[in-house]
Amino acid sequence: HASRTDGVDKNVWVEFTKLAADYKAVNLGQGFPDFSPPKFVQDAFCNAVSGGFQMHQYTRAFGHPPLVKNMAKFFSRIVGHEIDPFEDILVTVGAYQALFSAFQALIDEGDEVIIVEPFFDCYQPMVKMAGGKAVYVPLRPKADGAILSSGDWVLNPKELESKITPSTKAIVINTPNNPLGKVYKTEELQMIADLCIKHDMLCISDEVYEWLTYDGAKHVKIASLPGMWERTITVGSGGKTFSATGWKVGWAIGAGHIIKHMKTIHQNTVYHCATAAQEAVAQGFEREYEVFGTPESYFLQLPAMLYHKRNKLAACLQSVGLQPIMPEGGYFMIADISSVKVDLNDKRTEGESYDFRFVKWLTKEKGLATIPVSAFYSPEHSKEFDKYIRFCFVKEDSTLDAAGDILRKWS
Ligand code: PMP
Ligand code: GLN
Fold it and tell me: N or C: where does the chain have the smaller number of CB atoms within 10 Å of the terminal CB?
């Protein structure tokens, strides 16, 4: 085998999704809705597959034309920049492939990439497979007072700048963040943008949860800050946007001079993703353009629904003595498990970090699946953060209630 597969063979989703299924656990682990997408995109998908032969055949390599046109129209208004549908957008197989193409196209052997922790786990193996070196900067809980909100986790600008070297090519951020739920404020993004401009770095901004913010937190696109359009690759996901993670439609949006290199990777690897799924997402954006800002908009309805689910899960965790960190955005909530006293003497998990052992115990013995938070940290920092586990709340109320029953019974 090739050496690029060394050291990246373990995958938290492969491992814990199987464990949840094997034990038929109530699943607050992997991040996907256990309910259907909105009717307008489901109908669009059905109409697409039952339409003409074209929907079953190849479409344009870099994105089905109706999709890139509708996305350009939709996002130009949001970024405040006229997006060219054919130059500035690449449609990919999920946000995963947008990220993969970005690293392959932009990172050379020996380049350094700064990753803000906690981070969606695939950034690290993707940087490595491109020959780059990942350099980590953690978001740290503010030292003063109780840490109750994801907004209390911040970057230290000095620490961040100290990681930049002449080899630094890019920084990866994720807002709203998985797993913490932090939604970066404009000032925080401006600080990162200033460093990108000062040190001539690219910014890969993973915004798959862009519509999901709570309590008045506002999602801001770093690409919309002055001087950033030219150096930012914004990554998005139709799966997260329209609650259809299995469709695997994702995208990268950015300046044509950057996107063109990602197209080179894309045309020589997957070529394009499923035509009918792209058609459905195209119609989804068309509809959302028309109803934008009105109560009809799914981009308002979904966060409104998740706001209640977030509060329901938080109240449940608090009632059993698990202190959650309230997320300002996204699908997930992390909670401190250090107050829970359990016997984790399972021979099979010896030597593993505390949160991994705890999650395995909770899945096998109590039938509740979650995800260990140290999986979102580099080996250098994972020890400091192995007292947290992640709960997903994009679930039916009945699923959240079933999880609540398990927690209350055992505590
Ligand atoms: N980035 C983040 C932060 C994620 O949580 C996920 C998982 N949904 C992805 C990227 C990958 O998204 P997709 O399912 O569209 O490939
Ligand atoms: N993004 C999802 C999560 O964080 C899952 C990704 C995956 O299953 N590969 O839970």
Answer: N
